[in-house]
Amino acid sequence: MRKMIVQLRPGPELQELMEDFYGSIESMAVLEFLGISHRMELRLALMELRLRPGTRIEDVSFPDKLEIAEVLRSDGNTYLVLGDFRVGSEDIMPTLSLSQDLVWTTPLTRSRERIVFGCIGNGKDLKAVLDRVKDIGTIEDVNFVVPHFKDESLLSALPKRQREVLCEAYRSGYYEYPRKINANELAAKMGLTKATVVEHLRRGERRLLAEILAGR
User: Fold this and answer.
1) Cis peptide before 178, with omega less than 30 degrees from 0?
2) How many domains does the chain have?
3) What distance lies between CA 83 and its chain's CA centroid?
4) pLDDT for 120 beyond 90
């Protein structure tokens, strides 16, 4: 198994198919996949979204394959968000239907001018990816690396109580938009005070972000 990273300049047909996506979004980048979402076909992802000037994230109609769970930070038209993202060949770019044995991973960025994606598979499947993308754009760069799989979950970097509160918050819908449970309700459910729950959430979120963004 090898990991392949492809940089692609979309052709006119692909640009036209993706035009709806870029009506209000300049670019999208998945910084890290954090795990399987509560909906099994989705993966929880830390993402950076850059919107077109004058566009608010509340006004963006995201496609079905992307659901924003929480806005963590905003700076002008750039947003750092937690989102549920459906990851498959056709979800990365339209018309790209390939082997289900491929593992789609980071880097994953999309803009009008460039798509960068990573996938893990055997030589035959990776060659099929390259053959297919040649039909829908111009390959600007290809790199092959040895994939590294983490032995420990990012959650293992958290103290037990922070991990428990974060996991319960996610399972209960605290990070969904709109929220299915607020901090008061979550605290009552866990038998804790609101102040304790909020402190665990904030400390846990900060520590996870520090682990994910270290060295970036």
Assistant:
1) yes
2) 2
3) 6
4) no
